[in-house]
């Protein structure tokens, strides 16, 4: 079993923060169907990567998710922790 350190738990909180930000930002999508699909897509990405334990890979995934949120939700600017 991997040794989870402080950095891992900080990254875990960053993922939760990013998810909440995506949910809040999605309210600006006018079409309800598109909004729910966007939220479902983002949630599925988090679920797909929830077993990652390598801190570097997790950081890369967080940065990639931020870029994708900026592209999909242009009015959105996720705040760095």
TrEMBL record:
InterPro entries: Complex1_LYR_dom (IPR008011), Complex1_LYR_LYRM2 (IPR045293)
Keyword Mitochondrion: yes
Pfam hit, one: Complex1_LYR
Entry keyword Disulfide bond: no
Domain Complex 1 LYR protein: 13-69
Domain of life the protein comes from: Eukaryota
Chief location of this protein within or outside the cell: mitochondrion
GO cellular component, one term: mitochondrion
Record localization: Mitochondrion
Keywords attached to this entry: Mitochondrion, Transit peptide
Family: Belongs to the complex I LYR family.
Protein function: Involved in efficient integration of the N-module into mitochondrial respiratory chain complex I.
PANTHER family: LYR MOTIF-CONTAINING PROTEIN 2 (PTHR13675)
Protein name in the entry: LYR motif-containing protein 2
């Amino acid at each position: 079993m991997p040794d989870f350190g402080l950095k891992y738990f900080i990254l875990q909180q960053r993922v939760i923060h990013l998810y909440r930000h995506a949910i809040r930002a999605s309210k600006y999508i006018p079409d309800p169907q598109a909004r729910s699909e966007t939220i479902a897509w983002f949630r599925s990405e988090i679920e797909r990567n929830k077993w990652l334990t390598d801190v570097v890979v997790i950081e890369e995934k967080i940065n990639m998710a931020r870029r994708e949120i900026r592209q999909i939700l242009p009015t959105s600017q996720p705040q760095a922790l």
